[in-house]
Amino acid sequence: MLNTSLRSIATIIFFCLFCSISAQPPAPSGKMWEAVPELSDEFDFWDTSKWFKSLWNYGVPVQMRAENSGVANGKLWIKATLDTSSTRWFQTSRIWSRTQISYPMYTECSMKTAHISGYNTFWMNNGDINNRDEIDICENNSKPSITSYTSWPYLMQSQYFLTVNGNDERAKGNFDNRNLADSNPLQGVPWNEAYHTLGVWWKDKNNVQFYLDGEPAGSVSTTRDFTRSLNIIWDLWTIDAQWSGGIAAQADLMDDSINTMRVDWIHTYRLVSDGSVDIEPEKEAVKVKVFPNPVKDHLQLEFLEYPLGNAKIEVFDQLGKLVRAQALTRSNQQLSFVDLPPALYMLKITNGEAVNYQKVLKR
User: Fold this and answer.
1) Which member of 67, 134, 193, 302 is catalytic?
2) DSSP 285
3) Catalytic hit among 139, 193, 302, 314
4) How many helices (H) and strands (E) would you count in the chain?
5) CA gap 55, 45 in Å, rounded
6) What angle do CA 32, 36, 39 make, to 5 degrees?
7) Nearest Cα to 79, choosing from 201, 228, 236?
8) Comparing C-alpha atoms, which of 230, 195, 225, 228 is closest to residue 213?
9) Which of 183, 204, 230, 287 is most buried, judged by most C-beta within 10 A?
10) Predicted structure pTM score
11) Catalytic site residue 134?
């Protein structure tokens, strides 16, 4: 019980540290999340010890320039501007971390996209076009010039590349933020209209889990191994291609109300031992839906697999104290929050050997 409480406290502390939309997954048993300062920033100033401006170009019409990015008003920004005198008329920029990191790690940032036909990206990379390991957390185009792409303003477009001697292993996902929970205030909000929280849990050499606005947003498993430590990168770019959503309109680059992507913060963590003596292997996650969240009176649990005889839910408060426990005997079941004070709670749901941790806000 003591180690369970300590793990619950560590998880809840992280959730409360920064923002209510944070999606950091619960640490596996015997582990805890430790901040990586070199890859975390509130962007109160431009920190040259953490970031630099990488100016290698994509294809025409992109031209990377140091002047097109910086930090102002607590935000990292990358702006697309127009140079009518050059074939590389799409002037933009790229921000690159000086520090690399490998699994097991988790990183997330709060980002608002430019409203032009271009990729607003948050990604990780090490290598070149022919030999590289790459995790693309987000490639959002909120205003594709191919107007039939009506779903694109809502797509996260995560993917990975494992490239060896020019041969790609790749998988692409198109998580749609209209599929977020009905209780999520960012459900269906285009990426240029609000800051969205984008995250990735790089679990091991073959498994990556993406997050969006506090919810899981697809995962990938690889046959090749991720073997390289990766840098964290943001950039904004366009290309005249169907797969990118089409080329940006030049007039949009002259409109300062839509031509800039911004990042409010980034937080990065690595897994370390929590010092407990009963370290257990990570268990399979229980397949269960929990709603509404935030909750007022009653929480609904909907199992996607039938609960076994020892299925139960435990509720911990912000001090790691067990405040509620209930056996789960049906595929649909309610849990009362009526007499619990408004606060953030951690749920531990077990079903056989499978375990699922979730945070719930009581209003």
Assistant:
1) 134
2) P
3) 139
4) 1, 25
5) 21
6) 140
7) 236
8) 195
9) 230
10) 0.72
11) yes
